[in-house]
Design a protein that fits this description.
With about 450 residues, the chain is mainly β. It has six helices and 26 strands.
Length: about 450
């Protein structure tokens, strides 16, 4: 830059002014994020927020709801999503504690639906067809597995989902929506009413004997050795109660109340890609004969069991720890913007490591200590999140990551999860420090003034 500054000729104040203008122009060229800095405050002011209610779901003690609601209320147009927060409430809008209704999970998925086609049944997850296309996230799981854009469980009330400025999750781009289709959103709610059940933890871990289940939701016999998990607590199943009367007839209407924040799309926003990694994923390499290339098949089973102490390490704390790990190759890299893990009760934390052993993100659960909603004893009520400084944490394309999920194992746990959400950006905002620009300008001015005075 200095060679350019001193390439002019002339003397006196005219020369000084012309060179100062040149310095300013070069600063603007080398710091194009000045425009971003000027618009950042305005950008934050433009954040919109709306609160929505899911369709009503009715529950009674021991009952299970696992519904797929299509065409839910959601922001329209070409926008950038900034956060999605949710919790279960009753008809009066009062938050419902987990020890009454356990929120196993909620997920929000995106799809394109042919205009004019009737809505899909609430009983089934989205399936690709000539009239509906599931719009997956960027993750490496395949098929319909873990395709959602957002999703949490019991930790939903105290887990941050905010996407920091100047990033956003881009949706509604008309260029990407096929002709004759429109964008829609599906909400899956899986809740278990644990009032008056014989075994609360057994019901929330979906132990099959408590649900009197021997077949899955599709009528297929459970695989040998399967004693608990999603295949035993599907929609309309019933967990065993302490008694058959009383609370068994106490029904109530509940809703998932969700708050969405977004901004209108703008070129100043940097889009992020959503990745959901699964510790049960066991990638298998194979030769794709049709394409004549080596391919990878990802086997994301979503849930797994934690065996008791005898098969795990005992750390210095005296606690029994089950540590499950898997190695995953990232086909596409990026800069980490956000990270968080999803675990069930018994979870004690999860971490994602780079190929060189660096900690990309560590996410630790918070357990409740009371009875009120958001602080229920024995339940995970929050997960810590990672917000690295922009550009400070990069995952390279083709890098092998190590995902680790840790659970206590003093007793057996069934149907637990070890998921990890990360947001990756292709670009890093060039951070503008006004003091640096002023310093460059003043230093250059002083040097040029000294040169002028010395001539």
């Amino acid at each position: 830059m200095s060679a350019l500054i001193w390439s002019g000729s002339g003397s006196g104040s005219g020369f000084l002014i012309s060179n100062l203008l040149l310095v300013l122009a070069l600063c603007l060229q080398y710091f194009p994020h000045v425009a971003y800095a000027a618009s950042a405050a305005d950008y934050r002011v433009k954040i919109k927020s709306a609160v929505f209610l899911s369709p009503e779901f009715v529950m009674k003690p021991g009952s299970v709801v696992d519904r797929y609601y299509y065409n839910i209320d959601f922001p329209k147009g070409h926008v950038a999503l900034k956060s999605f927060d949710a919790q279960v409430v009753d008809e009066a809008g009062v938050p419902v504690p987990l020890h009454e209704t356990y929120l196993h999970h909620w997920v929000v998925a995106r799809y394109y639906q042919r205009i004019g086609v009737p809505l899909i049944s609430e009983a089934e997850p989205p399936q690709n067809s000539s009239d509906l296309m599931l719009v997956r996230n960027s993750g490496i799981c395949q098929g319909n597995s873990l395709a959602q854009y957002f999703g949490l469980g019991s930790e939903t009330r105290r887990t941050a989902t905010h996407v920091p400025d100047p990033y956003g999750i881009e949706i509604g781009n008309p260029v990407e929506i096929p002709a004759g289709f429109e964008e829609g959103w599906m909400l899956n709610i899986h809740a278990i009413d644990t009032r008056d059940v014989v075994d609360t933890s057994g019901c929330t871990e979906c132990r099959c004997h408590l649900y009197n289940v021997t077949k899955d939701q599709h009528g297929r016999p459970l695989r040998p050795g399967y004693i608990g998990g999603l295949s035993c607590c599907y929609d309309k199943t019933q967990c065993r109660l302490r008694r058959d009367q009383g609370l068994a007839t106490t029904r109530r209407s509940l809703y998932l109340r969700y708050t969405v924040k977004w901004v209108e799309w703008d070129d100043a926003i940097l889009p992020v890609n959503i990745y959901i990694l699964d510790v049960t994923d066991a990638p298998m390499r194979f030769m794709d004969a049709a394409e004549n290339i080596n391919s990878v098949k990802h086997q994301c089973k979503v849930e797994y069991d934690v065996e008791p102490c005898k098969s795990v390490e005992v750390y210095g704390s005296g606690r029994c720890i089950n540590s499950k790990k898997t190695s995953l190759i990232m086909p596409r890299g990026g800069y980490v913007v956000y990270g968080v893990a999803h675990q069930h009760s018994g979870g004690i934390g999860s971490a994602l490591y780079g190929e060189d052993g660096r900690v990309i993100c560590s996410s630790i659960p918070t357990y409740g200590t009371g009875k009120e909603a958001g602080n229920e004893t024995g339940y995970i009520v929050g997960m810590s999140t990672c917000y690295p400084e922009p550009g400070s944490m990069q995952i390279m394309s083709g890098e092998t990551l190590l995902l680790e999920s840790n659970y206590t194992s003093a007793e057996k746990h069934t149907g637990v999860m070890g998921l990890f959400y990360i947001l990756l950006a292709d670009q890093v905002p060039v951070r503008f420090h006004l003091s640096l620009l002023i310093q460059i300008f003043l230093n250059s001015s002083a040097i040029m003034l000294a040169n002028v005075l010395s001539t």
